[in-house]
Amino acid sequence: MEIKNIADIGVFGGSGFYSFLENIEEIKVDTPYGDTSDAVFVGKIGSHRVAFMPRHGRNHSIPPHLVNFRANVWAMKHLGCKRVISPCAAGSLQKDVKPGDFVICDQFVDWTDGRKSTFYEGPVVQHPSPADTYCPELRELAIKTGKELGITIHEKGTVVVINGPRFSTKSESAFFTKQGWEVINMTAFPEAYLVKELNMCPLNISLITDYDAGLVGDVPPVSHEAVIKVFNDNVSKLKSLLFSMIEKIPAETSRCECGKSANLDI
């Protein structure tokens, strides 16, 4: 893979984030895995060149089960990114994780079906470990920055990733709650794992927008309208966290092993 060294940090997220970047350059990346969700918008935050891509497209036209995660992640690597931050809207499965809170997830559970979830489909075969997918250095920095900003941060959590676009039934959600998992989302897998396969540092930042349907009798079932309202009410906090954190990211990784996840040969 040819590395362009155009950006050093990648961000996947909702449309509109790139409007806060300075001196934006829009770049179309052709990938061996097909079309990306959108162009990449490259700008500057502090000393970093940041590549932003709206994972659902700039008009939010791509549902979660149809996102071309491999193309998106490959594009970030191609542009030179060493770290990739994935903020996302997510539901809560536990009462103590409230709408408006942020969770810096440390584990995921894959409950999706049929998604292309690896770059290694032969003849090169590797098995990068997902045991601790998320970068410890980035997680620590996100937690510290969130606390400094007065944001309610949960320092760890497991995100169960469902296929979407439908939400869970009450029975499904109750099952997830009983497993002790905290967060439910539709895009955290395979995005973070693919980032890991390409030897970049992944970070999940889950903005909790709702209680899922499993807290039967305690909360109304989640609705799309409710999710959008809570997300919009808290998006300024998310942007503050992202910008403050990115400004503090050191030029080189110091303690993590993310860059040694695989012998890159794709």
Overview of this structure, please?
By secondary structure, the protein is α/β, with parallel strands linked by helices. The protein contains five helices and eleven strands, in the order E-E-E-E-H-E-E-E-H-E-E-H-E-H-E-H. Strands 1, 2, 3, 4, 5, 6, 7, 8, 9, 10 and 11 form an eleven-stranded mixed beta sheet that branches. Helix 3 links the parallel strand 9 and strand 10. The mean pLDDT is 91.
What layout of secondary structure does this protein have?
Layout: E1 9-13, E2 22-27, E3 40-45, E4 48-54, H1 69-78, E5 83-92, E6 102-103, E7 107-111, H2 136-148, E8 153-154, E9 158-162, H3 170-178, E10 183-185, H4 188-197, E11 201-211, H5 224-248
Parallel strand pairs: 1-4, 1-5, 5-11, 6-8, 7-9, 9-10
Antiparallel strand pairs: 2-3, 3-4, 5-10, 6-11
Please name the CATH topology. Rossmann fold
Task: State which percent range the strand residues make up.
Answer: 15-25%
Count all strands and give the number: 11
What global shape is seen? globular
Query: At CATH's second level, what is the architecture?
Result: 3-Layer(aba) Sandwich
Number of H/I helices: 5
The main pleated sheet reads as:
11 strands, mixed
Radius of gyration: 17 Å
CATH superfamily: Nucleoside phosphorylase domain
Low-pLDDT segments: none
Reading the helices and strands in chain order gives EEEEHEEEHEEHEHEH
CATH class annotation: Alpha Beta
Q: Give the % helix.
A: 25-40%
In total, how many domains does the architecture comprise?
Answer: 1
Structural class: alpha/beta
- The end-to-end distance, rounded to whole angstroms, is 7 Å
Provide mean pLDDT, rounded.
Answer: 91
